[in-house]
């Protein structure tokens, strides 16, 4: 038997052949799937710890164990696989309030915040590793950072009504916009864009069907309990002997706006170059969305589709669009003026006669009353100075008891004229970038998606005047997604055109 001499080189080779601890762990956990003495022993030990801990400390201990066993791997998956995390975030944002009504305990809003924080952490790690900071540059990114920075500086506002109100408000007003950078950096393929759209339309369709259930079958026991839990809720949702429907969302306004955006998206795609069967499906979806939206009783939402179609006709002017717009305008005029005893139709018609609406007159009066206070405070009264947080943490002044009923008015009161200028500049920059990118994009599919997303962003801006459209789940998350897509789709088009140019170059050389 021959014995090979032992040298430093042979020792090094033997060490390289031996599996390191990472390979041993993968073999232990993934290949063998804990089906070995050590794995069985660990599972038995874990079962004993859970049983004893739950018996001694109750369900709190069991919940902590579940968080550790499920939450930590999920957190690692979100950080390591951002596309998975984005899908979870978009689904969670849509079903956030439904989970609470189903009786699932825990602060689901905090879970959504932690999920967004994990995605931002994963994005920062990837940015640092690959040095891809160039992807995050641009006028929209700059304005978003300016807006977020201005909101953060409001903590030092000497005229702030409450510092604690700032803590509760800054998350939904500014911090959530950081999701824009997560979407902007991590959406890298048209396949993933299609997946997002299909998933969103699917969830919207289910939400619309649930609104039909509420309208014609009734509310669930949990929903009935919530509706009668507070006289203020009853007063807002029970109008003219008819309950306003909210589907799976927090309130009828959030439901109407989100389902309207899905309808606008479908209408924009119907005008694109798609097979007929897809247009028929999209038409069914759009009709379902628009009818279910009427159940919400949200008058401000009724004008969003006509306004979006008007912008579509301006940007994409041609004979077919002109004919379609004229037909739609005639149909809208008939629907506005046709006599009806249906309370949903009647409420729809009042949206186009605002001067006859007492609530609109009251809003105009309140806005005129608050103007002198706005002019005297150029940086505003601080985040959370108005609305619910102002009433809870404020000093009882006119501002604290003021209900803005408008995203723009809230910005003017809480952040002052300077904040309103920054906010309007941000929205202008977003729309300008989206319109420019639409005209630059050459791929028909990407061009179609850009138009649809652009119309949604424009509709959100219109919706933000009569209501606070950009601060509630899921609108705040999906608005960040839509703004990011206006740049992502253009980037994907540039990559595709570069690949086609390279392919043509190679074919020419051969």
From TrEMBL:
It is found in: Membrane. Keywords: Ligase, Membrane, Transmembrane, Transmembrane helix. The chain crosses the membrane at residues 34-53, 59-79, 86-104, 110-128, 135-153, 165-185, 192-212, 254-272, 284-315, 321-338, 411-434, 446-463. Residues 285-424 form the O-antigen ligase-related domain. It holds the Pfam family Wzy_C. GO terms for molecular function: ligase activity. It is a multi-pass membrane protein. InterPro entries: O-antigen_ligase-rel_domated (IPR007016), WaaL-like (IPR051533). PANTHER family: LIPOPOLYSACCHARIDE BIOSYNTHESIS PROTEIN PA4999-RELATED (PTHR37422:SF13), TEICHURONIC ACID BIOSYNTHESIS PROTEIN TUAE (PTHR37422). This is O-antigen ligase family protein. It comes from Mucilaginibacter calamicampi.
């Amino acid at each position: 038997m021959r014995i090979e001499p032992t040298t430093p080189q042979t020792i090094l080779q033997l060490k390289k052949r031996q599996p390191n601890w990472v390979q041993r762990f993968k073999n232990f956990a993934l290949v063998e799937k804990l089906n070995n003495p050590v794995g069985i022993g660990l599972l038995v030990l874990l079962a004993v710890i859970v049983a004893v801990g739950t018996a001694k400390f109750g369900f709190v201990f069991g919940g902590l164990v579940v968080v550790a066993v499920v939450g930590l791997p999920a957190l690692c998956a979100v950080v390591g696989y951002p596309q998975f995390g984005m899908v979870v975030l978009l689904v969670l944002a849509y079903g956030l309030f439904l989970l609470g009504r189903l009786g699932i305990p825990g602060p689901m809003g905090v879970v959504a915040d932690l999920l967004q924080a994990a995605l931002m952490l994963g994005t920062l790690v990837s940015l640092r590793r690959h040095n891809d900071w160039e992807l995050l540059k641009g006028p929209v990114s700059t304005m978003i950072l300016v807006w977020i920075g201005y909101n953060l500086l409001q903590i030092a506002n000497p005229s702030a009504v409450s510092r604690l109100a700032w803590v509760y408000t800054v998350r939904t007003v500014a911090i959530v916009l950081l999701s824009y950078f997560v979407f902007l950096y991590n959406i890298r393929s048209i396949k993933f864009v299609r997946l997002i759209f299909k998933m969103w339309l699917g969830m919207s369709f289910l939400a619309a069907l649930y609104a039909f259930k509420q309208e014609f079958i009734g509310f669930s026991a949990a929903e009935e309990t919530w509706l009668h839990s507070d006289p203020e809720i009853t007063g807002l949702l029970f109008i003219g002997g008819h309950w306003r429907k909210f589907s799976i969302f927090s309130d009828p306004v959030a439901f109407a706006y989100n389902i309207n955006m899905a309808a606008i998206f479908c209408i924009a795609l119907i005008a694109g170059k798609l097979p007929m069967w897809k247009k028929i499906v999209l038409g069914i979806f759009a009709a379902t969305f628009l009818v279910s939206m009427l159940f919400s009783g949200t008058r401000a939402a009724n004008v969003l589709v006509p306004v979006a179609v008007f912008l579509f006709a301006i940007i994409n002017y041609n004979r077919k669009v002109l004919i379609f717009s004229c037909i739609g305008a005639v149909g809208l005029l008939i629907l506005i003026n046709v006599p009806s005893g249906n309370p949903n139709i009647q409420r729809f018609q009042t949206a186009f006669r605002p001067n006859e609406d007492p609530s609109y007159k009251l809003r105009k009066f309140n806005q005129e009353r608050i103007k002198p206070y706005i002019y005297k405070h150029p940086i505003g009264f601080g985040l959370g100075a108005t609305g619910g947080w102002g009433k809870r943490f404020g000093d009882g002044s006119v501002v604290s008891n003021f209900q803005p009923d408008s995203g723009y008015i809230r910005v003017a009161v809480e952040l002052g004229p300077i904040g309103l200028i920054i906010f309007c500049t941000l929205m202008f920059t977003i729309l300008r970038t989206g319109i420019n990118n639409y005209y630059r994009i050459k791929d028909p599919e990407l061009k179609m998606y850009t138009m649809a997303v652009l119309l949604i962003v424009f509709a959100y801006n219109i919706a933000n005047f009569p209501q606070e459209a950009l601060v509630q789940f899921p609108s705040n998350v999906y608005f960040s997604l839509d703004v990011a897509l206006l740049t992502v789709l253009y980037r994907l088009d540039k990559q595709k055109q570069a690949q086609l140019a390279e392919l043509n170059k190679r074919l020419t050389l051969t």
